[in-house]
Amino acid sequence: MIHLLVATPLVGLVLWLIAQLAQRAFRNLPPGPKGLPLVGNILLAADNDWLASPQRKDDYGELMYLSVFGKGILVINSQRVAVDLLEKRSNIYSDRPRYISFNEFLTENLTFFLTGYGDLWRRFRRPAVEGFSKSVVPDFYPIQNREAIMLALALVKSPPSAKRHFRRHAWSIILSINYRLPPVESEDDPVIIGIVDHVERLSHEVEPGARLVEYFPWMRYIPSRFAKWKRDAQYWFVQDSLRYERLLSKVVDDLAKGIDQPSFGATLLKNQGKYRLSEREQAWLVGDMLTAGGETTSNTLHWWLLVLLAHPEVQVRAQAELDEVVGYARPPTFADLPSLPYIRAMVKEVLRWSPTVPFGIPHTSSADDWYEGMFIPKGTLILPNMRVVNFDTAVFGADSARFNPARYLDEKGQVKVVMDGREEGHASFGYGRRVCPGRFVAEGTLGIDFATLLWALRFERPEGAKGELDVNTPVHSGLVAHPVPFEFKAVPRFAEAETLLKAALDLYE
Predict the structure, then answer these.
(1) DSSP β-bridge partners for residue 67
(2) Which of 31, 189, 341, 368 is 20 to 30 A from 266 in CA distance terms?
(3) Is 474 helix (H, G, I), strand (E, B) or coil?
(4) Can you say how many angstroms the Cα of residue 232 is from the centroid of all Cα atoms in its chain?
(5) What CA–CA distance (Å, rounded) separates 346 from 170?
(6) Is 67 helix (H, G, I), strand (E, B) or coil?
(7) Is 409 helix (H, G, I), strand (E, B) or coil?
(8) Nearest CA to 74 among 49, 97, 101?
(9) What is the extent of the structural domain holding 98?
(10) Quick one: what percent of the chain has pLDDT higher than 90?
(11) In whole angstroms, what is the distance from residue 24 CA to residue 18 CA?
């Protein structure tokens, strides 16, 4: 009897997989590598380096199709196709994958960036878009300016710890913007440690092959006492909910005391009737906007520092612009950025050249579709390959693989549009209805960071640095691609730099 109970679901699974494969065998799926029987392309799908390689476009074209246990994965290797599907047909390409462990147990569908396309997502999206719109982000300039100065001072004192400084800096900004918390003094702050652990859990949960339940959905019905993955997810949902609710309660207390400083949390709470979110939904939405901005900003700064070392001529040109526009008597402010086109172009270029999340957050097709004679089944996982799209020579020129901010400047030295009318000039913020709502804050943070750091410091390779700089080998961790570790030193550009930074910081006390 026991053997029968075990064999029945296995036989059913095999028959289902055969039916899926047979059904699709007669349809003209996009080209892709041949897979193994039943398991399909399971090994290739878990290899981010292989998937993201420009060679895949040469091998299979603008669309590449893989299958894992009968589940389709479509990699888009073209800006043209990405726009056609994810923007022009956004009504059926705006859904997210149904990660069973992640959505049903670890977050209970409350993570905005992975919430399915429906009513809850719409209720999340409206406050996120409005709370980080172009008209609102100037309210956050004082926070970003202050933190840029703090970062520069930190690098003056202990430059070898750039990764720690970048991480503290990024989380401190986003905590202030979301909850109006005071500056975080150290990466070892308990709030940051808790959030970083949370982000790492979420990232691990969506890695290919992390949970068998994603390929064998019947496993969701295993009782928790027999499934450690389910017990852990349920436990952490409670703990993460409490963390988010505690953070937002600080904003609630401030508002009750008549303290109304600009923050996303305050905007959400003051418009409860308009946005129709429960207290838990509010807490998770603010928390999601927090987690989305911390690691990505820190990682982008790390890539930027790497390319400055690899392309010293970029640093020289940026500093010449700063010297002409800002001078040496004070650090830059947001008021200077409109007159710093090369710095603004540098922001666009680093986001284009080193997309922190190489495939973005996956889309899913919510209906069967045909595109240029190829069949795309309902439920297909859609991965826009940013490292190919952002390197398209037809858009960015023959030197698209090279870091060159000047590609965003016209003949008069002013910032120009180079990509399908996209103001940001790249695809790294995503597509269609799922484009990142925090992109204006991200651009502002990077702009004032680059300006302040390059005004105060010169970045160099230390004497005796080991190995060559590797700008072409991202190290993947979950959804994020990090640069290979490297050595550098930061040297004040003039004797008064530290004194002037401290004087400017005092204005924000």
Answers:
(1) 72
(2) 189
(3) coil
(4) 25
(5) 18
(6) strand
(7) strand
(8) 97
(9) 2-506
(10) 65
(11) 10
The pTM of this model reads 0.90
Q: In Å, what is the CA distance from 25 to each residue of 91, 140, 229, 435?
A: 27, 53, 34, 34
Greatest Cα-to-Cα distance within the chain, rounded to the nearest angstrom: 84
- Tokens for 497, please give them: 């730099």
Q: What whole-number distance in Å separates Cα of residue 457 and Cα of residue 352? A: 24
- The neighbouring-strand residues paired with 76 are 63, 384
CA dist., res. 187 & res. 320, Å (int): 33
For residue 436, say whether it is annotated as part of any ligand binding site. yes
Count CB neighbours of 472 within 10 A.
9
Calculate what percentage of the chain has a pLDDT beyond 70: 94
Token digits of residue 131: 């709370």
> How far apart are the C-alpha atoms of 251 and 266, rounded to whole Å?
6
Distances (CA, A) of 258 to 16, 143, 252: 60, 20, 10
Q: Which residues contact 108 (CB under 8 A, 6 or more apart)?
A: 237
Instruction: Domain count for the chain, please give it.
Output: 1
CB 457 within 8 A of CB 492: yes
Q: In which band, very low, low, confident or very high, does the pLDDT at 215 lie, cut at 50, 70 and 90?
A: confident
d(CA 195, CA 76): 32
In order of 44, 74, 233, 365, the CA distances from 71 in angstroms are: 14, 10, 24, 12
| Single-letter amino acid code for the residue at 47 | D
CB atoms within 10 A of CB 106: 26
Q: Is the dihedral of CA 439, 445, 447, 450 positive or negative?
A: negative
Cα distance between residue 212 and residue 234, in whole Å:
17
For residue 287, pLDDT beyond 90: yes
Question: What are the backbone angles phi and psi of residue 84, rounded to the nearest 5°?
Answer: -60, -45
3-state secondary structure of 36: strand
Does 449 or 39 have the greater pLDDT score? 449
The count of other CB atoms within 10 Å of the CB of residue 151 is 25
Distance of CA 378 to the CA centre of its chain: 26
Q: Which pLDDT band, with edges at 50, 70 and 90, does 10 fall under?
A: low
CATH number at 304 reads 1.10.630.10
